[in-house]
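User: For a reading group we're discussing how well predicted structures match intuition. Take Homoserine O-acetyltransferase. Before you show the prediction, I'll give you the sequence so everyone sees exactly what went in.
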Amino acid sequence: MPLRLPDKLPAIEQLKKENIFVMDNSRATTQDIRPLRIVILNLMPLKITTETDLIRLLSNTPLQMDISFMKLKSHTPKNTPIEHMMMFYRDFEDMSDEKFDGMIVTGAPVELYEYEKVGYWDEIKKIFTWARTHVTSTLYICWAAQAALYCHYGIPKYPLKKKMFGIFSQYTLNTHLPIFRGFDDIFQMPHSRHTEIHRDDIEKVPELTLIAESSESGVSMVMARNGREFYITGHLEYAPNTLDIEYRRDCGIRNDVDMPKNYYIDNNPEKPPLVTWRAHANLLYSNWINYYVYQETPYDISTIR
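Assistant: Thanks. Here is the predicted 3D structure of Homoserine O-acetyltransferase, as structure tokens, for the group to look at:
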């Protein structure tokens, strides 16, 4: 089944070119199906790009989903047209009485700030708390993963000497978890971050389970509340050229920019990226939707607790 998306969302035309079946609201209302309600809190600067990346992965399921986009009232994006935000996004306070089957909270370019010094910290703490009683399962990505672990469990973050930048091998620590159904023992995950969380801190909290990690990029996936929360420190949603765009953007602007590791063919930036994470990205999002959202959410969405 297709995704139900807001009419005229830019991602629709791009994904149709990739032969991904999406459906705008005008057509979807003719189908008598209770779609899964998925809300995306998009904190990334290039919101249209992130929308497209996430919708591409969510489309790989036979279930119909109704996608909504949430924004912060306490923050005005600088890199996305205000018309786009007004047309497709709603403030958290306008959505706070609603319930959702699944939620995704993206990364944000604020990881070098202390959490309490982030301008929208108070509002995002309210959203993290709200999600626990209004959403069946939530995926937190990159900065959002670190921030939510700090908010809920007091897990600190640590600055890295050098940016974790590239594609890194991850090891599944419990292959029997449904989130890893169909996974190999090792999978690849893009990372682009300046901070990290430590395994020792995770292991001190009984409510948290480390489920994937890397010898090079460290903690990569943490699970809590029997799968009602997943914390992912990398970016499986990234398109093939995302790290390349970031690398070329920063070259010449900063003097600490290294080539992304394990990314270009023959580690040569004059050659295209070698995509090694796409299959597992599709599997992870499909498994999340199937086993932790669809099979766990009540038919009467108002009964989510």
